[in-house]
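Dear colleague,

Following up on Tuesday's group meeting, I ran the structure prediction for the three-component complex that the binding team flagged. I've pasted the input sequences exactly as they went in, so you can double-check that nothing got truncated or mislabelled along the way. The structure tokens for the whole assembly follow below. Feel free to forward this to whoever is handling the docking comparison.

Inputs:
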Amino acid sequence: MLSKAKTMEAIDLIASMYPDAECELVHKNPFELLTAVILSAQTTDVSVNKVTPYLFEKFPTPQALAEGELTEIEEVIKTIGLYRNKAKHIKGCSQKLVAEFAGEVPKTIKELVSLPGVGKKTANVVVSTAFGVPAIAVDTHVERVSKRLRIVKQSANVTEVEETLMKKIPKERWSKTHHQLIFFGRYHCTARKPKCEACPLLYMCAEGQKNL
DNA sequence: AACTCGGGGCA
DNA sequence: TGCCCAGAGTT
């Protein structure tokens, strides 16, 4: 596993590649962001951005979405994939927001994860983006990149990846680094055919040396 | 731990 | 055309 210093060397290089990386969802308030992040599972933010304007025009509040007809919600979001599950999730999520959180989006990970459709990754994105809480949301990109660079051990699960990253990266950089790791994983250190030959981290990447 | 949901993007 | 994907729930 990479030392703390070597890890930051890698993080700095990635940061220099994507200095402006940020959440690409056109989120506004916490409710809209939360709903949009639930919809973004296994889908690109670009796809989600295509349906959310109409979704929130039709269901502007947790109350409205909680009372929305499932078939109507499905109709609006059907172009993003997994839409039946997601329609159920965002409706159920809004119902719980209304019933147990006074229609407000809760601010703790524990409460967020208790909502339908909200897992660890979604909860972290919400507290980070909506409430400015330092967080590292571990998705497949973050996990893959962290493992290839040996920032975390190969056998690490999502929780272990998150803990290791938080330990090695200064807290004030968690949120920004999270987006930069995602951009790096999505556009450069891709799951298939990573661009190792054009990677500034090649010199310190065991996985990359193998790929050449 | 494996299976399911799913249309869009890309080779 | 075929394959994968910014996850989470269920079994």
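Residues 83-100 of chain A form the longest helix (18 residues).

Cheers,
M.
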